[in-house]
Amino acid sequence: MATIDLTHTLSRIGVRTTTDVTDRAPWHGPLLVNSALMAVLVVVSTVAAVVDDRLLLGESVWLKPAKFGLAFALYGMTLAWILRLPHRGRRATWWLGTVFAITGIADVGFIAVQAARGTFSHFNDSTDPVNEIGQQVFASGVPGLFFANLALAVIISWQKLADRPTRIALRAGLWLAVTGMALGYLMGFTGPQLVRQSDGTVVGLVAGHTVRPGDTARDSAAGMPITHWSTVGGDLRIPHFVGLHGIQVLLLLAVALVALAPRYSWLRTEAARAALLAVAAGGYFGLLTLVFWQALRGQALTDPDLATAGAAAVLVVLVAGGVTAVYRRVREWETE
């Protein structure tokens, strides 16, 4: 099956990703396999959710593997594209990408196994052998994912892999992902709780996602559709999600700015697009900080208080001000 050459596509619409296309590395095989398997899992889980009526915390047992499969498929393809760009330390980044791919398959595979068994994957305190083995997989796999991504961020951040706007998107996006992964560790400190498996039996979890001090069944409370993010308390999955997917948002913005450049003359210079990406990256880090602060205070995303709403308004004003400043500066350049 032919693969889409994203680097070539970006080059055709004006995003310079390399100075010499022949310097590109081959596609990273393990990451492509990872993404392909995750895509298959999304399809299988979607079909299973239709034919299997078992529920965990009010949602299909197959929703979680579908969500993780989609997230890993997207992130794996993003990393595979990044590692194609000419850079120093290719051997190291290849091995780091391979660690990420293999560890991701093991971790998400266990999530799928637990879904098929009708029980919980994360934080499950059950003493049955399958769960105990799976928890050991998580205990070693999650740090592997984090440190592989951290090392990739360090190596990639100091190199000129692409044009300035794309470099800003890559660097900020990788560090957003590292931050999002690190924030995920805080879920382990939310305290124990009691929940029900799909067969109705009660099982203990050593931690959870929701911040509601003193509530021993907090993850069972009301949640948003699909994401199941809490609507009655803070939810640490939100900053985790926002951080992990920042790189896709920023890269798409970089492509969108190039696509809009023929229509809007002030976007035609690399300097202008780079400045806008810098504003967007700063605003995205601000958003991550905001939703993290909100979750820590035990506040639902859907029910912000005056302090949260005020902070969000300030963030919007700052980003709008940054965009306006860039626009005015570019217009000044054009008239000089």
Distance between the termini: 51 Å
Helix content: 55-70%
**Major sheet, described briefly?**
2 strands, antiparallel
Q: Strand portion, in percent?
A: under 5%
Could you give a short description of this structure?
The protein has helices at 6-12, 29-51, 63-84, 90-117, 129-157, 164-184, 237-244, 246-260, 270-296, 306-335; strands at 55-56, 59-60, 193-196, 202-205, 210-211, 234-235.
What does this protein structure show overall?
By secondary structure, the chain is mainly alpha-helical. Helices cover about 60% and strands about 5% of the residues. It contains 10 helices and 6 strands. The strands form 3 sheets. The chain has a two-stranded antiparallel ribbon with strand order 1-2.
Explain the layout of strands and helices.
Layout (H helix, E strand, L loop, with lengths): L5 H7 L16 H23 L3 E2 L2 E2 L2 H22 L5 H28 L11 H29 L6 H21 L8 E4 L5 E4 L4 E2 L22 E2 L1 H8 L1 H15 L9 H27 L9 H30 L1
Antiparallel strand pairs: 1-2, 3-4, 5-6
Record keyword descriptors for this entry.
336 residues; mainly alpha; two-stranded antiparallel ribbon; globular; disordered N terminus
